[in-house]
Amino acid sequence: MSNTVRILVGCLLALSFMTARAVNEELVTVSWPASLVSVPSNLRINDIRVTVACGEFKAMRYIPSDWSIEMERPMSSRTKLHLSAGHSASDLPNLKALDGAIVVAGAGSRCFDISAMVYTETSVHRLTRTDFSLVKMR
Predict the structure, then answer these.
(1) Which residues pair with 85 in a beta bridge?
(2) What is the pLDDT of residues 77-107, one digit of tens each?
(3) N or C: less crowded end of the chain, CB within 10 Å?
(4) Helix (H/G/I), strand (E/B), else coil: 123
(5) Distance of alpha carbon 37 from its chain centroid, rounded?
(6) What is the CATH number of the domain that holds 76?
(7) 27: number of Cβ within 10 Å
(8) Residue 8 belongs to some domain of the structure
């Protein structure tokens, strides 16, 4: 097989892979509810646990200083993302910095669901799919 044919076959395979991936994997960013994003709030957020069903986390576009992230991807259809502050000095006053920072795939699936628990010094905020805004990435 000539080099030209090999290159052409390689390009066609790469193009078909990218097309199949683009069709099946629409990426969206996760936007938090306005009550957790507003600048004047002083929530002192120290722990966030996000669960996605029938989808998966694809990227984290920003990680606050002195925060750690951990992802659990079991064989089941539920994937979990855990974000936590290193200590109380790195608690977040709101989720403005993380608005749009989480990227997920699978939002177009009929069984897709997303939920979260946001922990502060004094309260727990339970969020369901209807609390989030999912914005298609361009």
Answers:
(1) 67
(2) 899 999 999 887 889 999 999 999 999 999 9
(3) C
(4) coil
(5) 16
(6) 2.60.40
(7) 17
(8) no
Quote the domain boundaries for residue 81: 25-136
Structural domain includes residue 109: yes
In a domain, 102, yes or no: yes
Domain count, the chain: 1
* Sheet architecture: strand order including 133-136: 56-60, 102-105, 27-31, 133-136
Query: How many residues in total does the chain contain?
Result: 138
Does residue 57 belong to any structural domain of this protein?
yes
d(CA 14, CA 61): 26
Select the more confidently predicted residue: 87 or 30: 30
One-letter amino acid identity for 37?
Answer: V
Q: Enter the pTM of the model.
A: 0.78
Q: Looking at the DSSP assignment, which residues form a beta bridge with residue 93?
A: none
Give which of 43, 48, 41 is closest to 64, Cα–Cα: 48
